[in-house]
Amino acid sequence: MKVSALQQSYLNRRSYSFRSSGPLDSSSDSAVKSPAAIFWLVLHGLCCLISLVLGFRFSRLVFFFLFSTSSTNFYASPFRSTAELANAFDVHSVLSTNSITNIELPLLNKTVANSRVVVGRHGIRIRPWPHPNPTEVIKAHRIIERVQKEQRLQFGVTDARTVIVITPTYARTFQALHLTGVMHSLMLVPYDLVWIVVEAGGVSNETASLIGKSGLKTIHVGFNQRMPNSWDERNKLESKMRIFALRIVREKKLDGIVMFADDSNMHSMELFDEIQNVKWFGAFSVGILANSINTDETADQKEEEETSRMPVQGPACDSSNMLAGWHTFNTLPFAGKIAVYIDDRVTVLPRKLEWSGFVLNSRLLWKDGGDKPEWIKDIDMLAGDIESPLGLVKDPSVVEPLGNCGRQVLLWWLRVEARADSKFPPRWIIDPPLEITVPSKRTPWPDAPPELPANEIPVMGIEEPIVKHSTKTRTSRSKRRS
Amino acid sequence: MGKCFWAFLFIAFGFAPSITAEHNPRTERISGSAGDVLEDDPVGRLKVYVYELPSKYNKKILQKDPRCLSHMFAAEIFMHRFLLSSAVRTLNPEEADWFYTPIYATCDLTPTGLPLPFKSPRMVRSAIQLISSSWPYWNRTEGADHFFVVPHDFGACFHYQEEKAIERGILPILQRATLVQTFGQRNHVCLKEGSITIPPYAPPQKMQARQIPPETPRSIFVYFRGLFYDVNNDPEGGYYARGARAAVWENFKNNLLFDISTEHPTTYYEDMQRAIFCLCPLGWAPWSPRLVEAVVFGCIPVIIADDIVLPFADAIPWEEIGVFVAEEDVPKLDTILTSIPPEVILRKQRLLANPSMKRAMLFPQPALPGDAFHQILNGLARKLPHQKSIYLKPGKKILNWTAGPVGDLKPW
């Protein structure tokens, strides 16, 4: 039995006021006042006595509920009209029949479909399992998707072009980390997408298994040169790999917008909407996430470039929103502390202008692209390597600035790599499971207790080793070098 | 020759639909007798005479507390200003159809900004005594062709607590006048037959300033910010909002689809534009500015207030625009909302995107065609011409001037 401490004084006062002011209650029985009043008074006294005995408030409305035989909700007397009104609303037509049957059941069986929090004058209706129903959650997400699709149809780009993404990569420790990030960004893109992944050192199973999970249309090619250890060399090789990918675009006559998504960069979703606006060759602002160690000296130099501390590379516009120049990266503050080798622990700096800040129409690359503008150089005619896509154009002033003329940063550039000799389990699956992990003697964790026990780890699949953060773990099994 | 002519006609008719078919699917016009009314122009259909009351009834009150210009009861002040410079105003009371008394009855604010209605009955009474003695038009009809703007919680009952308001009832001397109020609930003492319900005042500039690009995807399913339990006045719950808000909280606080909380975020307006449904449950009174905000920001209002009468209900087809949920169905709110077919939701969003809908809910300064001021005038115009029976024989009195609590009879 519910309603053990239901305080109904409000409702009682309300019912009194209903009776005194007629128009409130459509079904008021004001004609039978005095016997009803005496009855309620007696009942009230009885309830008070019971409350005294029981020790908590006990209301006469309990009696009302017990003896009520009507099939409507007992709160419905002033609000009964809503049930009839509800039938008029098509939203409710599905539910009105259900609601009535639900309420009939509890009164018949004396069980309650809607339990109430037993405080206050009106019960606070809580259903017995106030947790979301998974089917309804799915329905809600379908609704949200449909609404967003409609929004995109109305306000978004009308004729969306395919996005052709070029990513140079190679198998290394952090490849899974970086590539998964890029992959998930690309999976969210609402437009058609072709992902060209060029892998240094040839096609590997690692990369293939990673990108296979995306469900995107991918072209995975290998570049038969291993990735060198220094940043300079790596940048050069990556440029070569990107041009190689551009050749693929030309061969296959892919139609769309070519963008360069390096695997360690972070892309915002607005980027993909913004690049749809490009006509031939566009550039946008790229935020550089080099960790700036000397922020005090560099603060004033950076102030005039950007209001934030983060340096930004990209097009610079004059007041009439025409391309006036380029913001590039100022390497002076970092003199002497620039990383040379890939696993150096100092700042990795970008080049003057990064590839990822540029997009181009794929028709520029076609051999006989019809109405190609004459300022584009043919890829096959390139003398050497080019450091940035600006090397593809004869006249850099034809570049279209995107992202509100370079004011919006749509992409963040970052280069983070693990130590060159770091090993990682292939596909990041520890199989078979580790039996013993001991700390590495060469790089002890600074505040770890001096003695670390060697634990027996149960055979369970992937388990967290007791001492982490050392990239070398001596195991009893030999790990494949990857 | 004839054949060529018919062939030409045939081709012309074939092309014509394709030429005219470029209609914008973004908004949908509220068609039919309900929606067309929103675009009516009241100028020329009625004449309003504005009484010249001493400034102690209006300007001095506002000077004492300028906060009255920005709270949700500010409609009374802005209506006065609008009428002073409007084309429907007439300086000749003989030709006026309606008479307006500029009295700012809701402008007595506590330090925290809540209006105290205790002096309002006396103020209204004193104003009416003044106009009935200085002009003959009140006594002619005992106020039946006068209208008053009473945007308080329970309208002309002049109390914020529902029980007390019901006890008091509508002020006896306003029994024959037309009341323009925000409160509306069917079968309630404080809603008179023939009243015009208006939306509460919401600052239009603030809302326009916080618009986000319309292509921002709507990713919040249900949004609500506000109290669920009024801990100061009703700590146990069950009294405030008839327990409906507390029910929403208890049932859906763990539901990720419902973004509900009591916080006051700075991005409130922006969040509403990213939500599909906005809850508009009752509070101490059934109306709230949330309805206006939801309509302006294109969020479908989910109205949880039994028997509520929404603003301009005779001009706006609210059932087609919003979702009505009975208070007893609150535990099933998620089922109700997720079972609405997506086409219906898209249609509601298109109706909400109609700029005439948004304009009808706002009180912009200066007034624009189709805004709430004009809808009020349209409502008044629809009640014309006055029936002959409202004109009383000279000397005949219907209203009881001494009815009501004794405290109301004191002079102000």
Automatic annotation (TrEMBL), chain A:
Segments passing through the bilayer: 37-56
Protein topology in the membrane: Single-pass type II membrane protein
Subcellular localization, as worded in the UniProt entry: Golgi apparatus membrane
Family: Belongs to the glycosyltransferase 43 family.
Documented EC number(s): 2.4.-.-
InterPro entries per the UniProt record, alphabetical: Glyco_trans_43, Nucleotide-diphossugar_trans
Gene3D superfamilies the UniProt entry points to: Spore Coat Polysaccharide Biosynthesis Protein SpsA, Chain A
Iron recorded as keyword: no
Principal place of residence: Golgi
Protein name, UniProt field: Glycosyltransferases
GO biological process: cell wall organization; glucuronoxylan biosynthetic process; plant-type secondary cell wall biogenesis
Single Gene Ontology MF annotation: xylosyltransferase activity
Gene: LOC111300737
Biased composition (Basic residues): 469-482
One cellular component term from this protein's GO annotations in UniProt: Golgi membrane
Keyword line: Cell wall biogenesis/degradation, Glycoprotein, Glycosyltransferase, Golgi apparatus, Membrane, Signal-anchor, Transferase, Transmembrane, Transmembrane helix
Keyword Cell division: no
Function: Involved in the synthesis of glucuronoxylan hemicellulose in secondary cell walls.
Organism expressing this protein natively: Durio zibethinus (Durian)
Ranges where the record places region Disordered: 441-482
UniProtKB/TrEMBL annotation, chain B:
GO cellular component terms, A-Z: Golgi membrane
GO MF terms held by the record: glycosyltransferase activity
Assigned keywords, A-Z: Glycosyltransferase, Golgi apparatus, Signal, Signal-anchor, Transferase, Transmembrane
InterPro entries for the chain: Exostosin (IPR004263), Exostosin_GT47 (IPR040911)
Signal peptide: 1-21
Protein name in UniProt: Probable beta-1,4-xylosyltransferase IRX10
Family classification: Belongs to the glycosyltransferase 47 family.
Main location: Golgi
Start and end residues of each Exostosin GT47 domain: 45-340
Subcellular location: Golgi apparatus membrane
PANTHER family: EXOSTOSIN GT47 DOMAIN-CONTAINING PROTEIN, EXOSTOSIN HEPARAN SULFATE GLYCOSYLTRANSFERASE -RELATED
Organism domain of life: Eukaryota
GO biological process: glucuronoxylan biosynthetic process; plant-type secondary cell wall biogenesis
